[in-house]
């Protein structure tokens, strides 16, 4: 059994074990053990990756290839580089943290954890796949459970939010499928057989006309999941109605599939198309960065604030990818990781505050630092990371993005960079505003004078997210070097044209 296939097999086995659990205690212990095993596998993969990379300079390591549908040349082909290995680690940490944050869920707990792990299975499978069709299948597996998770366990207008999210993402999937098939039917330009294998397609020159046509389809198909303006509207509504752990996985992991797919497929396989269309999508991404920041500034609901903040931060990922240079791409991957830990932590804290005060409206909160000091202090730390304070993961990521973006000599790129950088100021305003209203001042409600203390499982979930977020800021070089080495083969393909 190869190491990568276990990232699909272990969650599936955990799901099967959950089917036979009889009560809440058994369900959460089973989910916890399965998630712990996944985290252990991800940590082991990182160490194994460094050992293998020292002697193996291939683009992807630990590759395996099994025929799935021979007639269409579809394979279960797997492999990882430094980028996908890091994202697998991110996923495993957030899944485990989500299990702890959902420790006391009492409404269909078995079904909830099963749905959560089906989503995780899709994400793991997507990150390890190097076959376009297999990636698309896992992509859909990851997206589909969101409808159930929001529609059944959500709050507020959950049916509307679940349907809106599903319809928009399914529409994007249809566009993406056209793009993937376009790549497939142009994968034999050198006279070989049609193939879905990414590494094999990268050796083929896809005609410029095809690249110009299929790049925007592939980009938009993935970018909708990455909250590209103006296709972002499903995200705030979905976040607001989703249960806490689902919001954590949704923003922390699922939305990363968009940026990763753009990098791994659209940029790598259609580099001329990327150069041709980059200016247009840079404009949309820059608008998204600014719009998301101002959108967060106008909200009073904590989940909507974090959702619009995610639109802004993920807009930076798309913006950096479109800059088509090594430094910006490094920043894009670092931003994906940083945002994953940061936004999952925010949603976990929001869930804890809502569970105690029964409100997410910041105007109804106040003085929480006096009654729930631990949660409040972690909120301050997460806020400082979000606005890019040095010493946290956000600073490392955003510095790489803006330095890389400003490397372009053309006025258009530099103006777009300056506009995007200005979002940092707006971010500081809404973060400090929220912290000031929610944590400082007098306690607005007598019922908030005696709120429950933080539990062990909540602290565990928080620390799982907080430690890597700080670790990325304090010691980023090992991660950055791992990512930069993996970017090199991809940037060479772009620089040819």
From TrEMBL:
Coiled-coil spans in chain: none
Residues spanning the membrane: 6-24, 31-50, 83-103, 112-130, 136-153, 165-185, 213-232, 253-271, 277-297, 304-324, 336-355, 367-391, 411-435, 456-479
Decide whether keyword Protein transport is in the record: no
Q: Which family does it belong to?
A: Belongs to the complex I subunit 4 family.
Where it sits in the cell: the answer is:
Endomembrane system; Membrane
Query: What is the membrane topology listed in the Swiss-Prot or TrEMBL record?
Result: Multi-pass membrane protein
Put simply, this protein is called NADH-quinone oxidoreductase subunit M
What keywords tag this UniProt record? Membrane, Transmembrane, Transmembrane helix
Would the keyword Transmembrane turn up in this protein's UniProt record?
yes
**Species in which this protein is naturally found:** Flavobacterium taihuense
């Amino acid at each position: 059994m190869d190491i990568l296939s276990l990232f699909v097999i272990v969650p599936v086995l955990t799901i099967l074990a959950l089917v036979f659990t009889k009560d809440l205690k058994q369900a959460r212990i089973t989910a916890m053990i399965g998630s712990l095993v996944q985290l252990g596998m991800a940590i082991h993969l990182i160490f194994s990756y460094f050992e293998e990379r020292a002697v193996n300079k291939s683009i992807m390591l630990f590759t395996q290839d099994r025929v799935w549908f021979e007639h269409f040349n579809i394979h279960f082909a797997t492999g990882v580089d430094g980028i996908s290995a890091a994202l697998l680690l991110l996923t495993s940490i957030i899944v485990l943290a989500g299990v702890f944050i959902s420790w006391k869920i009492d409404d269909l707990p078995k079904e909830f954890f099963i749905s959560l792990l089906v989503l995780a299975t899709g994400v793991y499978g997507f990150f390890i796949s190097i076959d376009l069709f297999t990636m698309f299948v896992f992509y859909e597996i990851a997206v589909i459970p969101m409808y159930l998770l929001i529609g059944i366990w959500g709050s507020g207008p959950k049916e509307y939010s679940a349907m809106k999210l599903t319809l928009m993402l399914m529409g994007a999937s249809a566009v993406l499928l056209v793009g993937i098939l376009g790549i497939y039917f142009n994968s034999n330009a050198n006279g070989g057989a049609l193939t879905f294998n990414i590494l094999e397609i990268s050796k083929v020159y896809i005609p410029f006309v095809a690249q110009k046509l299929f790049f925007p389809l592939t980009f938009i198909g993935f970018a909708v999941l990455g909250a590209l303006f103006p296709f972002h509207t499903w995200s705030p509504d979905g976040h607001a109605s989703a249960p806490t752990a689902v919001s954590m996985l949704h923003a922390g992991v699922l939305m990363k599939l968009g940026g990763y797919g753009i990098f791994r497929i659209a940029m790598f396989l259609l580099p001329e198309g990327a150069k041709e269309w980059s200016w247009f999508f840079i404009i949309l991404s820059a608008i998204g960065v600014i719009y998301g920041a101002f959108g967060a500034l106008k909200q009073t609901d904590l989940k909507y604030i974090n959702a619009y903040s995610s639109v802004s931060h993920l807009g930076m990922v798309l913006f950096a990818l479109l800059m088509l240079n090594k430094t910006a791409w490094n920043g894009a991957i670092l931003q994906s990781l940083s945002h994953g830990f940061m936004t999952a932590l925010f949603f976990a804290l929001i869930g804890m505050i809502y569970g105690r005060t029964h409100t997410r409206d910041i105007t109804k909160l106040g003085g929480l630092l006096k009654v729930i000091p631990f949660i409040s202090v972690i909120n301050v730390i997460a806020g400082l990371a979000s606005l890019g304070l040095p010493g946290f993961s956000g600073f490392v990521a955003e510095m790489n993005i803006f330095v890389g973006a400003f490397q372009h000599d053309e006025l258009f790129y530099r103006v777009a960079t300056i506009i995007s950088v200005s979002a940092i100021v707006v971010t500081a305003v809404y973060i400090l505003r929220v912290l000031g209203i929610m944590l400082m001042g007098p306690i607005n409600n007598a019922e908030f004078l005696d709120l429950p203390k933080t539990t062990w499982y909540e602290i565990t979930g928080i620390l799982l997210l907080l430690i890597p977020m700080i670790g990325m800021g304090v010691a980023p070089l090992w991660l950055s070097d791992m990512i930069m080495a993996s970017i090199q083969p991809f940037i060479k393909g772009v620089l040819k044209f």
